[in-house]
């Protein structure tokens, strides 16, 4: 396991095992969630009961309870017929971050496509639990990835989508940052230490698609062009998880390329957080995120992203229940993450709204930081086929 992944795991254990602070916004979120379980059905009555126990007198949807009241934000309005494309690094991130938005778009007779960048097949601890053996093989990781694909399809179906609304790109779990930093060219692809693959394995894949930065950028660009979304939702580049942060930059890079070549961009580009200090149950993250850059720790693009506008999408009890069912579909993750899943059963979802300048500038700044050479910044198909 890479040092970044070890540090992320250590951070998660520390943050969620320590005593919770007692600021006003922390108490409200903790009280709201304290009697909620990922295994218990959510209804208007159960929300009313929880809110009364938390010394609130009305259900969340009726009282206007806002779990993000500590940060200045607007409200996200979803037009009828919206075409929404959501990029997620791993199966379960779609349920954690955007279950409510998916349901709201479908309620307005819109269309949704969920793009899974990896199969989530690099979670060593979970694979060992699954096979009940400390020694695991590449086959074990591959089978685990297939299981997570199945769970992802079940989850989006719980939200009202169809299996064909899921797209699995199959790039390396725990390796997306490596593609950007060290394996941009197809000439020397990344080899997954888990599956031992050097390219995605899926039907109909072009032979030149490898585990490389340029291949991932091209694949993201391809699916965007095929679906023509009105809105694109992606991981916030400041997320602590390397796969999340870098996947977000990859999507922005593809959008910047499309804008440069075709002068077109989705009407709205939104970001979401999953891994950040105390997010979403406390306000600490809101005080720190405006001073951090890509990955939540470096300064790259910190100034560019500092002025991100935040929007919330208030959810009905039925939409929160839909989110709970979707999260429950990820059965392979429940032993490790049920407590983490519960923290996202709030009556609102939070999104960052990026400007055109941010969309264009962030990937340029991050590319400059790693000094990508123009000679390798070519579409993968062009490199493979030659002049």
Q: How would you describe what is shown here?
A:
With 387 residues, this protein is of the alpha/beta class. The protein has one domain (3-385): Rossmann fold, CATH 3.40.50. The protein has 16 helices and eight strands. The chain has helices at 3-17, 24-33, 44-53, 60-63, 93-107, 124-131, 138-158, 176-181, 213-227, 242-262, 284-288, 302-305, 317-328, 334-342, 356-370, 380-385, and strands spanning 74-75, 83-88, 111-118, 166-171, 231-235, 268-272, 309-314, 348-354. An eight-stranded mixed β-sheet has the order 1-7-8-6-5-2-3-4, with helices on both faces. Helix 7 (138-158) runs antiparallel to helix 13. The longest helix has 21 residues, at 138-158.
Outline of the structure:
Helices cover 45% and strands 12% of the residues. The protein contains 16 helices and eight strands.
Keywords:
8 strands; disordered C terminus; Rossmann fold; 387 residues; alpha/beta; 16 helices; 8-stranded mixed sheet
**How many strands in all?**
8
Mean pLDDT: 86
Name the CATH architecture. Answer: 3-Layer(aba) Sandwich
Low-confidence stretches: 13-27, 53-63, 380-387
Helix content: 40-55%
Query: What is the H level of CATH, i.e. the homologous superfamily?
Result: LmbE-like
Count of spatially separate domains = 1
The SSE string, one letter per element, is HHHHEEHEHHEHHEHEHHEHHEHH
């Amino acid at each position: 396991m890479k040092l970044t992944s070890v540090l992320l795991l250590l951070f998660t254990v520390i943050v969620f095992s320590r005593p919770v602070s007692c600021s006003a916004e922390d108490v409200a979120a903790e009280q709201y969630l304290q009697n909620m379980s990922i295994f218990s059905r959510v209804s208007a009555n159960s929300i009313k009961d929880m809110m009364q126990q938390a010394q609130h007198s009305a259900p969340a949807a009726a009282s206007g309870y806002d779990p993000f009241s500590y940060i200045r934000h607007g409200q996200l309005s979803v037009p009828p017929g919206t075409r929404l494309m959501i990029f997620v690094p791993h199966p379960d991130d779609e349920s954690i971050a955007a279950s409510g938005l998916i349901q709201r778009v479908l309620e307005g007779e819109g269309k949704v496509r969920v793009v899974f960048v990896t199969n989530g097949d690099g979670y060593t601890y979970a694979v060992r639990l699954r096979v009940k053996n400390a020694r695991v093989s590449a086959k074990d990781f591959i089978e685990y990835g297939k299981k997570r694909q199945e769970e992802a399809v079940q989850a989006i179906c719980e939200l009202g989508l169809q299996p064909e609304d899921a797209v699995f790109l199959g790039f390396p779990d725990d390796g997306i940052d490596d593609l950007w930093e060290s394996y941009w060219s197809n000439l020397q692809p990344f080899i997954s230490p888990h599956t031992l693959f050097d390219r995605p394995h899926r039907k109909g894949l072009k032979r030149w698609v490898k585990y490389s930065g340029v291949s991932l950028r091209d694949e993201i660009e391809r699916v965007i062009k095929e679906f023509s979304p009105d809105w694109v939702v992606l991981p916030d580049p400041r997320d602590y998880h390397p796969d999340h942060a870098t996947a977000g930059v990859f999507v922005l890079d593809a959008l910047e390329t499309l804008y440069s070549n075709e002068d077109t961009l989705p009407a709205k580009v939104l970001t979401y957080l999953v891994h950040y200090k105390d997010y979403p149950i406390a306000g600490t993250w809101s005080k720190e995120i405006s001073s951090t850059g890509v990955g939540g720790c470096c300064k790259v693009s910190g100034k560019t992203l500092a002025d991100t506008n935040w929007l919330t999408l208030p959810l009905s009890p039925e939409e929160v229940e839909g989110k709970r069912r979707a999260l429950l579909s990820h059965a392979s993750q429940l032993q490790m993450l049920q407590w983490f899943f519960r923290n996202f059963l709030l009556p609102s979802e939070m999104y960052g709204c990026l400007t055109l300048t941010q969309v264009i500038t962030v990937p340029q700044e991050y590319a400059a930081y790693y000094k990508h050479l123009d000679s390798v910044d070519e579409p993968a198909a062009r490199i493979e086929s030659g002049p």
